[in-house]
Amino acid sequence: MFNSLSGRFLVLTIAFVMLAEVLIFVPSVARFREDYLLDRLERAQIASLVLLASDMIDEGLEGELLENAEVYNVVLLRDEARELMLSSPVPSPAVATFDLRNATAAVLIRDALHRLITPGDEVIRVIGDPVRMGGIEIEVTMAAGPLREAMLDYGQRILLLSLVISVITSIFLFLAVRSLMVRPIKNVVRDMTSYCEAPEDARRIIAPTSKVRELREAEQALYDLETQVSAALKQKERLAQLGGAVARISHDLRNILTTAQLFADRVEMSEDPGVQRAVPKLIGSINRAVNLTESTLAFGRAEEPAPRLTRLQLAEVVTDVVESERLATGDHDISYGEDVPVGLMLRADPEQLYRILRNLVRNARQAIEASGKPGEIAVAGREEPAAWVITVTDTGPGLPKKAQDTLFQPFSAGSQKGGTGLGLAIAAELARGHGGRLELARTGPDGTQFAVYLPRGLESGAA
To answer: Which residues, including other chains, have CB under 8 Å from residue 199's CB and lie 6 or more apart?
Structure first.
């Protein structure tokens, strides 16, 4: 029960109500003590009136009057003269004097708490104002034991009443919270569970019905989320079906193109000048079509595994990439540069990092080759407080605006003829698998720069 929201609310309600009652208890006990003492002063004044009416009273009557007033003696100040009106033997000297005429609330509370924690039947002196203009001042001597007993009895009754009030209040609050808050929250949880069982079923999407503003906002947000998730699932299913169809078409098309490629190889042997001029273009077109279908099939089947992180030297990976691309450069005037500190170590999957950099460097090389001008490609690496940063910079013609808008989307090769547009998409996916990102740092007529960010937080996480 206490692990539930309503149960904890019940306990907190009881605790805070009891705290409030305790804060009320202290001044109420002080008030009770003051009334108790004022009542004894009034009784003592009434008893002294008997002596004023008759100058002589016997000792028996005087003792009865003092016993009824619960005091030992009474001193009355009248006409600037102090008179001992009634007296009886005092068991011990008075240990304290309390003047009720100018006592503040703080003083009354202090004296009341002191009396509660001080046991014993001490003798105290109490001073106050007579009632009904019966004099200037009245003073009595009395025992403190009965006062403390009366205060304890009053305190017990107050605490018991406070406990009953707190329990009743807590029960009503518990029922109110359970009805107004807990039950609607459980309904939302039930709707969420029902939706999770079959997110494709639009009938299970929650319908905002709560009249409480905060709960209705939560239901509305959940409704929007479930609507978007359902739409995304439907779109994913359509894309999966479309991807399967494209894969099957690409498979059949590859077989057809392979056959056409064989016939083109035979046609290439013809000695007809017209055929000799057309065959290279025909073979080039067929080869590009075959590469496109094979790339489509590979991308459709690809499910990149999670990176197997290990410590490696970045310079070694960059050197392997640059050497591979240098061999593929051929007769083109392209120079390569490496700016990686020899001791720079990072944590990544060696094979996937190689593929990321190879795709970036290859794209840079192909962009420079397509421009027909000499160029440079530089790979640099550095270490920042939050990440390792690897940049690939070229002096190519830059990317057109159309290509920048769909840069990391598959099959969106807007800047290179004959490309499939998968290189950057695969590189970005591999970077995300490392918890990092691939960004286009800058591009323009003087060249393009891509930046790979690999978070250093992976180092502690993998360890």
So the answer is: 226, 229, 230, 233
pLDDT at residue 330 in the model: 72
The domains found in the chain, sorted by start residue, are: 5-167 (no CATH), 213-301 (1.10.287), 310-462 (3.30.565.10)
Taking the C-alpha atoms of 436, 442, 448 and 450 in order, what is their torsion angle to the nearest 10 degrees?
-10
Q: Which residue from 215, 218, 191, 217 is spatially nearest to 205, judged by alpha carbons?
A: 191
Cβ–Cβ < 8 Å for 257, 283 = no
- Give the integer Cα–Cα distance in Å for 408 and 358: 16
DSSP 3-state of 363: helix
Question: What's the rounded Cα separation, in Å, for the pair 78 and 52?
Answer: 11
Write the CA distances from 223 to 181, 192, 194, 217, integer angstroms.
19, 10, 13, 10
- Tell me the DSSP string of 439-457: EEEEEETTEEEEEEEEETH
Is the Cβ–Cβ distance between 51 and 57 less than 8 Å? yes
Task: Say how far apart CA 71 and CA 89 lie, in whole Å.
Answer: 11
Two structure tokens written together for 204:
């299970």
Q: What is the largest CA-CA distance in the chain?
A: 162
Mean pLDDT by 10 residues, the chain (463 residues): 68 77 84 92 84 65 83 84 84 90 90 88 90 80 92 88 80 80 82 83 81 83 87 74 66 66 67 69 65 61 72 93 84 90 92 92 90 92 94 92 78 53 82 91 92 76 35
Assigned token pair, 210: 């709560």
Which residues are 86's β-sheet partners?
74
Place of tokens 């794209």: 363
Q: Provide the pLDDT for residue 418.
A: 46
Residue type, 218: A
Could you give the CA distance from residue 320 to residue 236 in angstroms, rounded to a whole number? 38
